[in-house]
Amino acid sequence: MIAVVNVTKSYRGKNGPIAALDGANFRVRVGDFIIILGRSGTGKSTLLGIMGGLLRPSSGEVFLDGKSIWTLDERTRARLRAEKHGFVFQNASVIPSLTVLENVLLPQAFLPRAHAANLSRAKSLVEQIGLGERLHAYPDQLSGGEKRRVAIASSLMNDPPFLLADEPTGDLDRETESEIMNLFLSLWRNGKTIVMVTHSHQLASDANRVFKMNDGRILELPGQNGTHKHIDCELDSPGEAPINVREVPRP
Ligand SMILES: Nc1ncnc2c1ncn2[C@@H]1O[C@H](COP(=O)(O)OP(=O)(O)OP(=O)(O)O)[C@@H](O)[C@H]1O
Ligand SMILES: [Mg+2]
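YS: structure for the whole thing
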């Protein structure tokens, strides 16, 4: 379980502090597939970074399986992060000078228990994403969708329970977007807990919980019989009715 409690984050800007998060409260249950929607600049990447232990909040706490991660020392937090979280960062996130196989292997470098089984695990992940024939290709020899699949395979290398994906289909065509989404859905069915940021209301209909970020706060959108098949596509319009959303209960 991940709980984000009263988290704020302000960045230093040229003309004073920029409030990216303003009292965010958010709880991820094991087994959730959460989609976070919201306009550009509303704090989605900031929230993912803070809940994943990558970015220190200005105030508030993040609990991971009951541990307050921002009170741990950096070394312990890095270890926890490598074990518990798979990250798919906004905008591709593969290393151009490493091959497909090397990119997928990379996260195990952050855990002390590196062993030979890693190589066969990495190969089998590359096969699962359909690039078994391209193990030694470099990212510039791959399409955008293939690179994204490598980034996803890499996030799975340490077999983390949580996957945090920031617009993993952002710059892809519809067909590739749906391929990537199917990959996430099969990972979800196989037990991963997923938090995905996207601008696509279409994708949100497949999640079991949908949230929306607005001015550094996060609200859960009510589902219909546990699904979100009928999300109002006008939610991003300026005249959005607050009646459509409800505040997430404080953990
Ligand atoms: N390192 C930084 N320094 C200063 N301001 C930042 C920094 N990172 C983000 N911001 C600002 O904080 C706010 C939230 O940014 P964030 O990247 O979390 O938004 P986002 O919802 O992920 O946007 P997008 O949909 O465009 O990715 C924005 O106003 C952004 O300009
Ligand atoms: Mg972002």
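YS: worth flagging: The first strand starts at residue 2 and ends at 13.
IM: good catch. Also The pocket of magnesium ion (ligand 2) is lined by residues 44-45, 90, 166 (CB under 6 Å).
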